[in-house]
Specification:
Shape: globular
Distance between the termini: 29 Å
Helix content: 40-55%
Strand order of the largest sheet: 1-2-4-3-5-6-7-8
Number of strands: 8
Radius of gyration: 18 Å
CATH class: Alpha Beta
Order of helices and strands: EEEHEHHEHEHHHHHHEHEH
Oligomer: single chain
Number of domains: 1
Length: 296
């Protein structure tokens, strides 16, 4: 269903009993709401939660900023190094955090548990810090503060990531092959061993909404937002950080950095998990998150 959140159309799916405590799942860079595994969503519903998923702006069925150009990511990174306060992106992660809170407004949910994956974990930090009255607890999965000095992705992963952000894919097939190449680099061994499932999910996402212009603006939002350590320090809600031990895109040290800057935060390292949500790890993730939310 479509709702108006922060003044734009956002596509939302609502699962479970409306009377149960709400969990808002915030997805990552370029990923549509369908990338939340249904076993994960249904597992949380079975634990007694109402689970809301949504498409971030510029992906899926949510609002597209057509005609608004994002900066070249390499040029933006260089510029931000010397002029960190210069705003070069059409929007930043704070705007996307307001979208998420707008979803809660549209569904008349006063407070929710916030769970963010990757870029969604960065957005979640801003929700937890800047909209604390709306947050019951916060969980970051495979995310980062993007603080200076943190280890980054390998050269191969960075190269494909920047290519994805700059790409002007002319056809769905071009975009599909680029996406598959990137996902194979960052997935767990389990994820890499399921190439047919990854291809099928990407084709489903393309059929739902093929929009190659969105990634460039989302990447620009991440770069423009910059270091989130000061944001993490302002988070007062119960926080848990989950990270894959084998994450080649955002190394575990980045997740530990979130936990180190949020007072009282709990850190959970998941063996055998890369920058993905492997099916065999979903029961463990559901239990961790349900226990955290119930304790909060």
């Amino acid at each position: 269903m479509q709702v108006i959140a922060n003044g734009i159309n956002i596509e939302v799916e609502d699962h479970g009993n409306p009377d149960d405590p709400a969990i808002l799942l915030v997805m990552g860079y370029t990923a549509q709401l369908i990338y939340w595994p249904m076993d994960f969503v249904n597992g949380l519903v079975a634990k007694g939660f109402r689970v809301i998923t949504f498409d971030n702006r510029d992906v899926g069925l949510s609002y597209k900023f057509d005609g608004v150009r994002g900066p070249n990511p390499i040029r933006q990174l260089i510029t931000k190094r010397f002029f960190p306060n210069r705003q070069m992106a059409p929007y930043n992660l704070s705007d996307m955090a307001r979208d998420a809170v707008g979803v809660l407004d549209a569904l008349k949910i006063d407070r929710a548990h916030i769970i963010g994956a990757s870029m969604g974990g960065m957005i979640g930090q801003l929700i937890a810090a800047d909209h604390a009255k709306r947050v019951l607890s916060f969980t970051a999965i495979m995310s980062s503060t993007n603080g200076p000095g943190l280890p980054g992705a390998s050269a191969d992963v960075r190269r494909v990531l920047m290519k994805t952000a700059r790409a002007n894919a002319r056809t769905p097939d071009e975009a599909l092959e680029l996406g598959l190449a990137f996902s194979s680099l960052i997935a767990s061994d389990e994820g890499r061993g399921r190439p047919d499932e990854r291809r099928a999910m990407m084709k489903l996402a393309q059929e739902r909404a093929f929009y190659p212009a969105g990634p460039k603006r989302q990447m620009a939002a991440i770069i423009d937002t910059g270091n989130l350590r000061p944001v993490a320090k302002r988070i007062k809600v119960a926080t848990m950080v989950i990270h894959g031990a084998d994450d080649p895109l955002i190394p575990p040290a980045c997740g530990r950095d979130i936990a180190a800057h949020v007072k009282g935060a709990r850190f959970e390292l998941v063996e055998g998990m890369g920058h993905d949500l492997p099916p065999s790890k979903l029961p463990e993730l559901v239990d961790l998150i349900a226990d955290h939310c119930q304790a909060a």
